């Protein structure tokens, strides 16, 4: 289901930044598809129109964690991997982003999972169960964030907004 708070955040992003959606196999065609009703499909279509670019894995023939989808996102956003701070809560998505030269920040719940994310090669890891995320993300990205791929939303996305540098670009992932 669509989360109204996230839709409002997206609209706020759109005022200042280029917005790209990177999604795994979400049917954004004209059919009802995974949305089950025409009303839900119409609501999703309306939100998708907010994005400057939608990279849909089922249409591109490549999905996360394949490095080609990250390269495609960078190409379409007009950035290099070295400009990207990639935050994800799925370890398998971190490795290819790191291999491309992105600064990788892993998000995990609990000390054991944070240690595991660091073992995967993340530049930093934040523990969403250890208190407010903004100070943790500030420590992980002290110069701020130029490009942000979001696969989590909520407090993590709010913290990324707070650290966004001027002309930052955000890709909201599904």
Give an overview in words.
The chain is α/β, with parallel strands linked by helices and 174 residues long. The chain has helices at residues 4-16, 38-48, 57-60, 67-77, 91-99, 111-119, 133-140, 154-163; strands spanning 19-23, 53-56, 84-88, 103-108, 124-127, 145-150, 164-173. Helix 7 packs across helix 8 (154-163). The longest helix has 13 residues, at 4-16. It is globular. The termini are close together. The model has no long low-confidence stretch (mean pLDDT 82).
What are the defining features of this structure?
8 helices; 7-stranded parallel sheet; 7 strands; single chain; 174 residues; alpha/beta
Number of strands: 7
Spans of 5+ residues with little confidence (pLDDT < 50)? none
The SS-based structural class is alpha/beta
Termini separation (Å)? 12 Å
Give the C-alpha Rg: 16 Å
Can you count the helices?
8
How much helical structure, as a percent, in the residues? 40-55%
- Dominant shape: globular
Q: What is the overall pLDDT average?
A: 82
Biggest β-sheet, characterized? 7 strands, parallel
Strand order, largest beta sheet: 2-1-7-6-3-4-5
Strand % is 15-25%
Q: Which oligomeric form is depicted?
A: single chain
Order of helices and strands: HEHEHHEHEHEHEHE
